[in-house]
Amino acid sequence: MTTLPRKDLFDLPEGMTYLDGNSLGPLPKALPARLDAMVRDEWGAHLIKGWNACAWMDQPARVGNRVGALIGAPDGTVTMGDTLSVKVYQALSAAVQMRPDRKVILSDNGNFPSDLYMAQGLIQQLGQGHELRLVDPEDVAGAITDEVAAVMITQVDYRSGRMHDMNAVTAAAHEAGAVMIWDLAHSAGAVPVDVAACGCEFAVGCTYKYLNGGPGAPAFIYVDPAIVGDIKPALSGWLGHDAPFAFDLDYRPGMGIERMRVGTPPVMQLTALEAALDAWDGVSMADLRAASMRLTDVFIEQVEARCPELTLASPRDAHQRGSQVSFAHEEGYAVMQALIARDVIGDFRAPNLIRFGFTPLYIDEGDVIAAVDVLADVLNNRLWDAPEYKTRSRVT
Ligand SMILES: *Cc1c(COP(=O)(O)O)cnc(C)c1O
User: What kind and span of H or E run contains 134?
Assistant: First the structure.
């Protein structure tokens, strides 16, 4: 069994404490050489022949199986491509189609806005009187009535780290006859997930957060193999066709999960992701979860002891949260900027949260203590109270 952390697999800048792997994972050391080889020896040398010679066309399925292994999805049930927002749209349009007599899409007000925006766009496009109904996260299970066509929930809240019980919510959805869609953006590579055991119809997520695929890395979609054959894809691109190179004039969905492909796969990004996924070989998700709970517990305990101005904005019970911790502070933006200037990297989420991700692949308890040392200095000496920390950038 592999021990954690595995810092030697990552190219982390000297002197930096990186607590933002929940937003963008760091560079795996093996990635640049793999990408360089793909660009020069595959694309450069083979040109168009690379599609066959280098099996580029099979990448979405091949990489999908490796991501699937991290979320409890059997081989052949996950495919890769596009961004998460697009995969949310695909899952949701398919789910709504499965329940034509129901008009409610249920989500919670802790969901990431893009998921909600995609639902709003789909509803408008359908023009069939669907409604996006938002409830407080703790009220989701109770709000699943027989009006609900689809329940679309992000398991781990991007701001607070509060975590839904996938089995319980999925069971409630099925009890009421609704289709279940899980967004695993902050779960895949962060907490143990078993999509097959929970029985959800759809799961989607991204790979640039805990899976370290790099900025713009492709998203994944899982569909329960028992229902995938009945789905009529809304985004009916040629590579989801049963025979793309027959160039038929009419769309006919491909076999199984292949139909959730849309267009040409992002070969360079998938190559990068494939290299990044090697860091997971031999890692037990149970060990990772235990390490993550320990790191977040130590962080909370240390911050509360040394930074009394901060208010915990995440669940106190480690079983109730994912792999991130947030604290509220009126001047959160400036506090985070002051931290970043001192090489402790987290991020800020409006209106007042400073957020820290804990990634046991490359973060250990020493990093947690080092980060709290800097945070305590910034707060207790009001180092954040300087004009240069108060001008907002486009990405926070
Ligand atoms: C990160 C995240 C996204 C981002 O979507 P992209 O299309 O990849 O930009 C969407 N939804 C959730 C829940 C996220 O956490």
Answer: strand 131-135
- Write the DSSP assignment of 257-301 as a string of letters: GGGG--SS--HHHHHHHHHHHGGGTT--HHHHHHHHHHHHHHHHH
| Whole-structure pTM value | 0.97
84 lines ligand 1 (CB under 6 A): yes
Residue nearest to atom 4 of ligand 1 (CA): 84
Question: Cβ contacts of residue 238 below 8 Å, gap of 6+?
Answer: 244, 263
Q: Which residues of the chain have pLDDT under 50?
A: none
The confidence score (pLDDT) of residue 1 equals 60
- Residues serving a catalytic function are 112, 183, 208-209, 355
77 in Cβ contact with 230 (< 8 Å): no
Separation of CA 204 and ligand 1 centre (Å): 10
pLDDT tens digits, one per residue of 187-197: 999 999 999 99
CA distance 253 to 275: 30
Kindly give the number of the ligand 1 atom that is closest to the alpha carbon of 209: 1
